[in-house]
Amino acid sequence: MEYLSQECYEKLYNELKNLVSVELPKVKNEISEARDKGDLSENFEYHAAKRAQGKLLSRIRFLERVLENSRVLDASKLASDTVGLFRKVEMTNLSTNAKVTYTLVNPHEANVREGKISVKSPIAMALMGKKAGDVVEAKVPAGVLRLRIESITT
Question: Going from the N-terminus, what domains does the chain have, and what CATH number goes with each?
Fold first, then answer.
């Protein structure tokens, strides 16, 4: 079971709808046109279209599974005094005194440029369940980060 924001659910649902109703018919048409060109054993266009169809069907199955096994979670109903899913956490890196703010989200929504990190990332896992003022150590590929939680908001 995965929890998604309403925004992420709609994004994934719209992507699935587009793949099924627009992209899949387009690829099927490309396969049909390539098949009409003759010998399939040496027909590059046919093989390329079949590969594209395979990738497309794989993405469709993936999105269907994600949407089937997920629930939309209302972030306003979650406890706001501890770090958790859909919480914005402001923290200070104790070795550099640099302040950073991240929102903890589902892996499908993660985007570091937007300040959204996956709850499955090393930093988020170290933060989960902690409160403002707590100091945590997160093991990241570059070493160990010591972070002090400054504030937690929705």
Answer: 2-72 (1.10.287.180), 77-153 (3.10.50.30)
